[in-house]
Design brief:
mainly alpha; 8 helices
C-alpha cells in the first residue's frame, strides 16, 4: 500500500520535471517543435496537480493565440479532445504573483466554478472560434474568455520595437 503512494509521488515528480523541460519549447518558432511540446503538455494535464496543473493549462491556453495559425488550431483541437476524454480540470490553484503584479488592483470577474457549466462554456469557445482566421479578431478575444473562465492571469505584454521607432533610429545615423 505504501509503495502505491510512492509510485504516485514519483509520477507527479516526473510530470513536473517533464513540464520544466517542455515549457521553454512553447516559446520557440519551430512549428513541429511547438506541436510536440503542445501534445506533451496536453498529455501531462491528468498527471499534474496544484500549481503545476495551473501552469500547464495556462501555457496551453496561451498557445491558443500563437502567431502561427497551425499551432492555434492544434491547441484548440487537442484541448477539446482532452476535455471530452477527461472532463473539467477541476479547481485550479492560484499562480504566485510577481512583485509588479501585486501592486496592481485586480478588477476582473471571479473565475467560473469548476464543473459542467464551465466545461460547456470552454468547449463552446473552443468549437466556435475560427482559430485559423485573424489573430486579433478571433483568437485573442477567445483566449481572453478562457483565461477569465479559469481565473488565470493574461499574458504579460512586452515592449516591442515598432517600425516607426526603427526608422527614426536609422535616420539618426545618416
Amino acid at each position: 500500500l505504501g509503495e502505491a503512494s510512492d509510485s504516485t509521488d514519483d509520477g507527479i515528480n516526473l510530470a513536473v520535471r517533464l513540464i520544466e523541460c517542455i515549457k521553454p519549447a512553447s516559446r520557440c518558432k519551430d512549428v513541429p517543435t511547438l506541436l510536440v511540446a503542445l501534445s506533451l503538455l496536453i498529455l501531462l494535464i491528468p498527471y499534474t496537480s496544484g500549481i503545476a496543473k495551473t501552469e500547464v493549462l495556462r501555457t496551453i491556453i496561451l498557445l491558443l493565440a500563437h502567431r502561427f495559425p497551425k499551432v492555434r488550431k492544434a491547441a484548440a483541437d487537442q484541448l477539446y479532445v482532452h476535455f471530452i476524454t477527461y472532463g473539467d480540470v477541476g479547481e485550479l490553484d492560484a499562480l504566485p504573483r510577481d512583485d509588479d503584479e501585486a501592486t496592481q488592483v485586480d478588477v476582473t470577474d471571479p473565475p467560473m466554478a469548476a464543473g459542467d457549466a464551465r466545461l460547456e462554456f470552454v468547449m463552446g469557445v473552443l468549437l466556435e472560434t475560427a482559430w485559423l482566421d485573424a489573430l486579433d479578431d478571433h483568437a485573442k478575444p477567445s483566449r481572453a474568455k478562457l483565461l477569465a473562465a479559469y481565473g488565470l492571469p493574461p499574458p504579460k505584454v512586452t515592449a516591442t520595437v515598432t517600425k516607426e521607432s526603427k526608422v527614426k533610429e536609422e535616420d539618426t545615423y545618416k
